Amino acid sequence: MVRWFITAVVALGAAFVAGFAVFTAGLPAHDKPQEGFEGVDGVAALTGGGGVRIERAMQLFAAGAGERMLISGVHPDTPLSDLRALWDGAENRFQCCVDRGEIARTTRGNAAEIAEWARANGYDRIIIVTSDFHVPRSVLELRLAAPELDIVAVATPSAATGPGRSLKGWRMLASEYAKLQVRRASLVFGA
């Protein structure tokens, strides 16, 4: 019985390490030119990442990607001036077409908020902007919330994947990989 338990623990550990290696190797690059923005209806930024995600989404939107932009997961106390400070486009485009999503507090919540926004606007194809290590789980959640959407993911750089990755960066990656696996397992087991 003890030998079986040890074998199972070693096998699970090996599977985790192998899967983690595949996960990290498959993360999207953020230093390559972005393509596939034709026919995009909207742009959605998931908050977090120290504002880098919002800034990148605003750059895409200001350059003409999409009709509207959603910033998902904005804290209700965040003043509009904080968001406007990240904007470098035409003022009328910001005023008319940048929406604040103030309900989401989790990745699953972001997906629900983005799906509702896309449906309310009749969108079929959207760009989502999030940190490189967060792309796989964000796309998974959004595909579950809105399977009808065509999703173009844009990755922003993070401390988890930068050069000279620290122990903190490795922990961030391991934590995100574990969250992704837990979410996948919950789907298999019907949670």
Question: What does this entry show, briefly?
Answer:
This protein is about 50% helix and about 15% strand. The chain is built from 7 helices and 5 strands.
What do these coordinates show?
The chain has 7 helices and 5 strands, in the order αβαβααβαβαβα. The protein is an alpha/beta fold. The longest helix has 24 residues, at 2-25. The model has no long low-confidence stretch (mean pLDDT 87).
What structural keywords apply?
single chain, 191 residues, alpha/beta, five-stranded parallel sheet, 5 strands, 50% helix, elongated
SS content category:
alpha/beta
Q: How far from one another are the termini? A: 30 Å
- Number of helical segments with 4 or more residues: 7
Query: How many strands, which pairing sense, and closed or not: the largest β-sheet?
Result: 5 strands, parallel
The shape, in one word, is elongated
Could you give the count of β-strands? 5
Sequence stretches where pLDDT stays below 50 over 5 or more residues: none
Helix-strand string: HEHEHHEHEHEH
Radius of gyration: 18 Å
Mean pLDDT: 87
Helical proportion? 40-55%
User: How much of the polypeptide forms β-strand, as a percent range?
Assistant: 5-15%
Order of strands, main sheet, comes to 3-2-1-4-5
How would the blueprint of this fold be written?
Layout: H1 2-25, E1 42-46, H2 52-62, E2 68-72, H3 80-84, H4 91-97, E3 98-101, H5 107-121, E4 125-131, H6 135-145, E5 150-156, H7 167-188
Parallel strand pairs: 1-2, 1-4, 2-3, 4-5
